[in-house]
Every structure is written in C-alpha cells, then in structure tokens.
C-alpha cells in the first residue's frame, strides 16, 4: 500500500514505514536509546530527503521513548534528578544545534554534513562500545558477573558543584551531566537522534551510573529534548512530515513494549555488545553510500 508524503514529496510503502518504526521501538525498550541513529539513516536509504528525515525522525523518537519509559517507571528504574540535570543541558544544546542546522541548510551542505556526522560519530562510539563491551563480557565469563557500578573516583567526583543523586547512589558534580546533555542536544538537532547512543555509554563510563537506572533515565531525557527539537524544526524549517511521522509513531509505540521485555531478559554486557554491533553496521552502510559512485550522477533541484 503506497502513501504519498507531502513534505518529503515521494510515495512510500506504508507497511515498510510501520516496520521501521517497530524496529526502532524495540531498540528504545532494549537499550534506552531513542533509535534515531538507526531510523534517520534508514529513512535516507528509502529516499526520504535528509532534512525531512532528521526533523521527522526526532518526532518519532518521542513516542517510542515515552512508551518504553512507561515500562521502566513500573520497575522504578528512572533517576528523575539526574534526568533533569541532563535535560537542562539538552535543551540548550538542542537550540544551538537547530541554529547550526539552519546555517548548513542555507549553505546547501546539510545533506553531506549530516551523513558525515553519522559516519564519524557512529564509527567512534560503536568501536569504543564494542571494545569495552567485549572486555566486560569476557570478564563476566571468567570471573563471574561484572558489577554494574563501581565506586570509581573520576572527573565527576573531583569537580565542584556536587549534588547527591539518590536513585543512582552517586554524589558527583553537575558539570559533567550538563555537558553530556548539551552534547546530546546538539546531536539531536543536527542528526535527528535522541542521542542515546552517546548518552548511555557516557552515563555508564563517565558518570559511573548503575546500569539498571541508565536506560530509564536516558529515555526520560530523550523524550523532552526530541520534542523540543521537533518543535524547533517544525517552526523554523517546516520539514516535519506528519504523514511519515504517524506511521513511524504507530510502529514505534508497539515495538517499544516488546523491546522492554527483551531487554529485561538479557544481561547488561550482552545488551552493550548488541548495541555496539548495530551502531557499527549502520555506520558501515552510510560510509559505503558516501564512497561509492551513485547510479544517478546528476539531479535537478530548485532553489
């Protein structure tokens, strides 16, 4: 069943869009990521213009993340205090990111630079996550289960402006969480992602949060930053395609419930390896598309 997308100006199979949304919903529930790092490149692959994919992908992230968050609230695995600090930085970063996106669009370089952002960030994050996850998995097999949280004294413990986060069992400076939120907000606006693929590793390895509260807390922050990003794109760029968003939302909400159940059955080390593998696969496909000669060398555009 083909549907016409008025903003993207192309026709796409409706069941394909539902499937993409469902896939991202499963990821949201399992890993605590909004899934934008996957849904936005997949929209590129089926012919959606990058500017529309970025803006509409951010909208879809809100629904799938909210659905997954509801399941985590029932298990009481959300640190609202930490999430609020991350959110404060995320909203500022999102506003700055939309400004950068508009500037790139005016220069006519937004399509190329969005793809380059994906290749660079996904490659670095995916490689670091895979190395660390495989090490943790080996340790868990030879020495028993790896503790989710170690009382390691790092940068977050030495900086000023400390705050106690009881749900995470931490007493750290608010500066690192604010900076993490700021970086995620910028990426959310430029790349159409929730930023979970950056935030989840940062919360585990930089802030030393327990794995059990990382997923729910990440989803809490992603919801509000993605909603704010969508609003800014809709009002400044007019690139949010409602028809596209609707089908992605339906699939995402359903998939998130299945993802949460799957995530509860897997060990933390296994979840990290699976997420790292997904990030690297998407990165590889985007890199190939940038390097290979396209079948159609020329296109007609209107200014």
From TrEMBL:
It is a multi-pass membrane protein. It is found in: Cell membrane; Membrane. InterPro entries: TM_pro_TauE-like, TSUP/Inactive_protease-like. GO terms for cellular component: plasma membrane. Keywords: Cell membrane, Membrane, Transmembrane, Transmembrane helix. The keyword Membrane applies. It comes from the Bacteria. The chain crosses the membrane at residues 12-39, 51-73, 85-104, 116-137, 186-206, 213-234, 240-259, 271-288. Belongs to the 4-toluene sulfonate uptake permease (TSUP) (TC 2.A.102) family. This is Probable membrane transporter protein. It comes from Donghicola tyrosinivorans.
């Amino acid at each position: 069943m083909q549907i016409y997308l008025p903003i993207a100006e192309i026709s796409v199979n409706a069941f394909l869009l539902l499937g993409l949304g469902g896939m991202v919903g499963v990821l949201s529930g399992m890993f605590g990521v909004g899934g934008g790092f996957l849904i936005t490149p997949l929209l590129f692959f089926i012919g959606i213009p990058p500017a529309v994919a970025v803006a509409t992908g951010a909208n879809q992230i809100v629904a799938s993340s909210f659905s997954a968050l509801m399941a985590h609230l029932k298990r009481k695995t959300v640190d609202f205090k930490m999430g609020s600090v991350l959110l404060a930085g995320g909203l500022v970063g999102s506003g700055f990111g939309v400004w950068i996106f508009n500037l790139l669009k005016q220069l006519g370089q937004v399509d190329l630079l969005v793809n380059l952002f994906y290749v660079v960030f996904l490659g670095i994050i995916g490689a670091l996550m895979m190395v660390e996850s495989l090490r943790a998995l080996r340790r868990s097999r030879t020495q028993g289960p790896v503790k989710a949280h170690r009382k390691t004294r790092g940068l977050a413990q030495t900086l000023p402006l400390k705050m106690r986060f009881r749900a995470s069992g931490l007493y750290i400076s608010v500066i690192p969480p604010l900076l993490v939120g700021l970086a995620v907000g910028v990426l959310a606006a430029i790349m159409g992602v929730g930023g979970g693929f950056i935030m989840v590793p940062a919360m585990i390895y930089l802030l030393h949060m327990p794995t059990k509260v990382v997923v729910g807390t990440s989803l809490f922050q992603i919801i509000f930053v993605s909603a704010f990003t969508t609003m800014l794109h809709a009002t400044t760029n007019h690139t949010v395609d409602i028809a596209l968003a609707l089908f992605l939302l339906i699939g995402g909400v359903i998939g998130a419930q299945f993802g949460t159940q799957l995530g509860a059955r897997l060990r933390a080390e296994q979840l990290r390896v699976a997420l790292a593998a997904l990030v690297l696969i998407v990165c590889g496909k985007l890199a190939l598309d940038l390097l290979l000669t396209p079948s159609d060398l020329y296109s007609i555009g209107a200014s």
